[in-house]
Write a structure and sequence with these properties.
Length: 493
């Protein structure tokens, strides 16, 4: 299992490192700079509303299906036809709920128009993830890896033409960004369903009420967990917009309005979001692997430590280095608003350490079916997030939301480690934990030292990252010999 995980992780990381950085640093940043903070903030609020309620499109089906197919592969054909029909019914319910909330919030016709496309995009994206869960459940990781980047490849092509192709004399409009996503999702959806049908054979789409109730009984704890976690991860921007003024007046400048503050928050948050996508790649691979290992009563200790080491070392180095050099990072990426977004970024990026921890230990607990404990943890997370946001946003604006996000992520990550430790009776390797702490402290001091003693800040950043990475090998948080042995063994299989 270690060999399968590591070799497929290399492929998945390679493909995503090839595409995702250009998608964010080239396309998304290009869009944000083209439309400005307020216009992107407007889009970001609507996007996060659709993402928070996204669970109504899925009800935990994707995560449960990934675990279930990994353990019982013969169920693919039986489940596929029923679940497809269920997802279309859920799409109608999701749309009704989203538009009802939008009307309560007082959305005008233009916002409702943009919202309609974002609702369609969420439906397609969610459906693609469900179809991919069948591929990963069958351990077809290479096929799943290629499909995982397809939508971004298509969006990059379309938006590159619109941003820099000179095909129009108009200034770039935020709705063009939305339309491009719709087109890319439609093409990816068609290709993904063909790949799944190739493995499942003929599918008869039908709605079985008894099947729906039985399946929902198994999947709803996953749905509740995803909703609760999406709420405390995504609702910050909605609260910023709701708690801050919406109109510019003589006493309220544009920079104090909700849309502007959401815009600068989005500048910082999107970098964390993109970094977290690489943690998600670990979860995609680990969920079916952990599920199968748990079913076979195999020892998960070595797999857990290997996967955590591979994610936590770069997470610590990237998060702390980026936090110290936050001004340089934001000024490189954005044309304006960085005097506000840089302090936000220096705080929020530290959450990458907690998010990475969650992707490993949360995935392990999900694979084990420990949903009750995870849902209690998530409720605590929401309570903390709402309380801190309500206290800080009116006074510190988007920076207050950044502190809320960091604190919430840290609380929930620690909780998941403790829950896993108790359920799996894990042995605390105090020396291993000490090495992680020492790496974090060392990286921080390297970053501070080089920021003050090297004139070229980019050279200072790269030096900090390089020395910290070397240090992680010296203390054997990452072990070159073990990694090469895994690769060597995988080639002999």
């Amino acid at each position: 299992m270690k060999r399968k995980f590591f070799t497929n992780l290399i492929l998945l990381l390679f493909l995503n490192l090839l595409i995702k950085p250009f998608w964010f640093f080239g396309i998304e940043v290009g869009v944000q700079n083209a439309v400005g903070e307020s216009a992107y903030g407007f889009y970001f609020v609507i996007l996060n509303l659709t993402m928070v309620m996204n669970i109504l499109l899925d009800l935990g089906i994707t995560n449960y299906n990934n675990k279930n197919i990994a353990q019982h592969q013969f169920l693919l054909q039986k489940h596929l036809g029923n679940i497809i029909s269920i997802r279309f019914i859920l799409a109608i319910f999701y749309s009704i709920v989203i538009f009802s909330i939008a009307l309560i919030l007082g959305y005008d016709s233009y916002k409702l128009y943009i919202l309609s496309f974002l609702v369609l995009n969420q439906f397609l994206s969610s459906f693609i993830l469900y179809l991919r869960s069948n591929l990963s459940g069958l351990h077809l990781f290479r096929t799943d890896s290629l499909i995982s980047i397809l939508d971004k490849v298509l969006m990059i092509f379309i938006l590159s033409v619109l941003l820099w192709g000179g095909v129009t004399s108009q200034e770039f409009q935020i709705e063009w960004f939305v339309y491009s996503q719709t087109a890319a999702y439609l093409i990816t959806f068609a290709i993904t369903i063909i790949a799944v049908l190739n493995k499942s054979g003929h599918i008869k789409i039908k709605f079985d009420y008894k099947f729906f109730l039985a399946f929902f009984k198994q999947s709803y704890p996953y749905a509740l967990l995803i909703f609760l976690m999406a709420f405390y991860n995504r609702f910050d921007s909605v609260m910023i917009d709701a708690l801050l003024p919406k109109e510019i007046t003589d006493t309220i400048p544009e920079v104090s309005t909700g849309h502007y503050q959401v815009g600068v928050y989005a500048q910082a948050y999107r970098i964390l979001d993109v970094a977290s996508q690489f943690g998600y790649l670990f979860a995609v691979l680990l969920l079916p692997i952990f599920a199968r290992m748990i079913k076979k009563n195999e020892n998960i200790g070595q797999m857990l430590q290997l996967s955590y080491s591979l994610i936590i070392v770069p997470a610590i180095i990237i998060a702390i280095t980026s936090s110290v050099f936050s001004s340089e990072v934001m000024n490189l990426l954005y044309d304006s608003g960085t005097e506000y977004s840089s302090p936000i970024f220096s705080v929020i990026i530290l959450g990458f350490i907690a998010v990475s921890t969650t992707y490993i230990f949360g995935t392990l607990l999900t694979a084990n079916g420990s949903l009750k404990q995870l849902n209690i943890m998530a409720i605590i997370g929401i309570t903390a997030n709402l309380t801190i946001n309500l206290s800080l946003i009116p006074y510190f604006q988007a920076l207050g939301a950044a502190y809320s996000s960091l604190i919430t992520q840290s609380i929930t990550a620690i909780a998941q480690v403790l829950i896993a430790w108790k359920i799996f009776n894990l042995k605390f390797n105090y020396f291993y934990i000490l090495k992680i702490i020492v790496l974090a402290v060392t990286t921080f001091f390297f970053a501070i030292y080089f920021s003050k003693n090297l004139e070229n800040m980019w050279y200072a950043m790269l030096t900090t990252i390089g020395i910290s990475l070397l240090f992680s090998f010296l203390v054997k948080l990452l072990n070159i010999k073990d990694l090469f042995m895994i690769l060597k063994d995988s080639q002999q299989e």
